[in-house]
Amino acid sequence: FRGDWWSPARLPAVVMATEVDGCVDGADTAWVLLSFVLVLVMFPGLALFEAGLLPAKDTLSIFVQTLVGVTALSVMWDVIGYTLVFGPDHSGIIGDFTHAFLYNVPYNDCNKFAPTIPAAAFAMFQMLFASICPLLMTGSFASRFRFWPWLVFTLLWELLVYYPVAHWVWGGGFLQQRGVIDFAGGIVVHVTSGSGAFVCAAMLGRRKDYELHNNGEFPPSNLPLAVTGTGLLFVGWFGFNAGSALKTGSLATSTVASTQIGGCVSALTWMVAASLTGHGLPPGVVSVANGGIAGLAGITPASGFIDNRGTLGLGLVLGLTTWAGNIILKKKLRVDDALEVCVVHGFSGAIGSLATGLLATRSAHPDLVNEGAFYGGGTHLLVAQVEGVLVVCVYSTIVTVALMWLLERLFRSLSGQGLRIDLEGEIVGLDIAEHRETAYHDLEVEMSEEQKALLPMHFGETQVSARRRTSAEISDSINFSEYS
């Protein structure tokens, strides 16, 4: 840079040089900014959803990971993320540092990725996609991953997995050049995080008492909290998907409809499956919530490319396949993915991305280059989608394995402890063992006198007792005659 590039006297010239009259559409900009706020709502929704389904002793660890994650990843996106994803392409692999620190990403000019809104609005909207992607994995390794190793892993995973993949699919990289399409992140967000979640859960190992709790089906701590989180995620998903239209009008309308119907059909499918396998009893709220989230994740890559008929069919397929996938994960593979992230997000995202190759139609998205096979487009798009899903799944898996292996050895050499919390800390819970806080005043956990001595002074015996209720005690406290 020239020595005076930063001078205030030069700023008007810089602004005038990049200004394009008539580029920015007010309605489109307002919709994208509103969608930004809707997607932001998904972060507390994610924390509430996961915390409500996990044991009470790990509630605050989820909130800490979500809060620290979104703040750290947002700053990281501002500094290097945007430019590596949407900067000038280099060999179809990654962008460069032209727009580091969002340099020359103006508020009054557009770019080729979003031709009717300010480039800065597009950058901020994409920031939240980049931030939420690695945080989806927190539900898979809940109750086990120590905080500092988790934070290092998350930042490196973002740099080595999310940024390259987002460039390949959205930033002009080699997958986009080969015809891969992904409307709102089925491949970029859900396949990457789902693959990573499976690896993390497998490499960290099962939680204590995994066998005693029906292959990891630990009792939820607060189902109303989880349902509240589900609602916030559902609302935010309209910004996630329909906001990716980057404009108002028919495309955003079609995407809203696909998101609503796809999520609802999948939730109903899980409900029916739960009733049929539960001897005709009414379904539990967890099944309906998981079915809805699976449908929303699966409809994401196709939401702007398919019509209502395709949405109904895809929602049904997503519900059936993710229900079956969840059973295989728990009963056959016996991988302790605490909240089934690899199925609800990864598997559903892959199914939705592949279905796009069959169901994409110009009646929903007039600018499609190739329609799906069911609409006379041949197999070109389907082959591209298969290639995209396979490449991203394999890449995310390999990089995640390498990161987990290297960081395990690094932290063990530095601190004598690897990525996973020790057994005593797992029994007490991450809230107390790592963060010295608890979400509930009447929490009962197993705790040594040494651990109790480390608690802050405001913790009293009425807040945290030194024993955890056994499964038998919990069962004895329930009057099952009410349900006979």
Q: How would you characterize this protein structure?
A:
- The protein is mainly α and 484 residues long.
- It has helices at 11-18, 26-53, 59-86, 119-135, 147-170, 174-177, 186-204, 223-242, 250-277, 285-299, 308-333, 341-359, 380-415, 423-428, 430-435, 449-453, 471-476, and strands at 443-444, 464-465.
- A two-stranded parallel sheet has the order 1-2.
- The longest helix has 36 residues, at 380-415.
What's a quick, concise take on this entry?
The chain has a two-stranded parallel ribbon. The longest helix has 36 residues, at 380-415.
Summarize the topology.
Elements: H1 11-18, H2 26-53, H3 59-86, H4 119-135, H5 147-170, H6 174-177, H7 186-204, H8 223-242, H9 250-277, H10 285-299, H11 308-333, H12 341-359, H13 380-415, H14 423-428, H15 430-435, E1 443-444, H16 449-453, E2 464-465, H17 471-476
Parallel strand pairs: 1-2
Number of strands: 2
The span between the termini is 77 Å
Structural class: mainly alpha
Percent strand equals under 5%
Shape: globular
Quaternary status: single chain
- Give the helix level as a range of percent: 55-70%
Poorly predicted runs are 1-21, 460-484
Strand order of the largest sheet: 1-2
Largest β-sheet summary? 2 strands, parallel
What order do the helices and strands follow? HHHHHHHHHHHHHHHEHEH
What value does the Rg take, in angstroms? Answer: 23 Å
Q: Estimate the mean pLDDT confidence.
A: 89
Number of helix segments? 17
